[in-house]
Structure formats: C-alpha cells, structure tokens
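BUG: 3D viewer hangs when loading the predicted structure for this chain

Environment: internal workstation, default settings.
Expected: structure renders.
Actual: progress bar stalls at 90%.

Input used:
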Amino acid sequence: MTDGPVDFKMNTPNAPTWWVYLVLCGDRSIYTGIAIDVARRLSEHREGGARAARYLRGRGPLRLLIAQPVGQHGDALRLEMKIKRLGSDAKRQLANEPDTLRRIIDGILVAAQ
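Structure tokens produced before the viewer hung:
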C-alpha cells in the first residue's frame, strides 16, 4: 500500500510506460485503472472534476492500494479488463500480494508476443 510520494513515471525514449493501479474507495469498493502518470491520475480522481472517473465521484476518500508498471498501452488495457472482471476479494488479494499481480502482468506480456 502506497501513501507516500512515489515516482510512477518510468518513461523510455520511445514510448511511455503504462501502469495499472488499484484504488480503495471510501465505500470499500476497489477501482482499477491505467495511466502513464499514476500520481497525476489519482489527483484528478480525488479532485472529482471532468477528468475523474465517473465511478469514483463521491466515493472518497480514495487511497492508492498498488501500482505496477505494465508497459505498452494495449497490454495495460488487457490487464485492466482482466482485473475488472475479478471480484473485490480477488482484487484485495492482488493489492496485498504484488508478486501475484506481477505474474499476471508477465503472463499478459508473454501472451502478447
């Protein structure tokens, strides 16, 4: 679980690195998203403006549970959809076991090759 400042930008000269992240909402639900800059995206969600995910509006306070680098946009989208299909207990398990999430990411990257 991440509460302090973390540099979520790991950009390469050719393409930015996409990240998948899980956010715990005030109602105990878990939101899954992708971004190049997780800190900026989380800030947008917390502000609740036009750039915030509709699901998160009014569900604060929001707390980042985990963020993992994925790589390319398409891979991040596939992972996001896979995680969104999971139940909340499975999402909590992923947040508490970063190695499990990393194995899923690695599996998606291998399958995409």
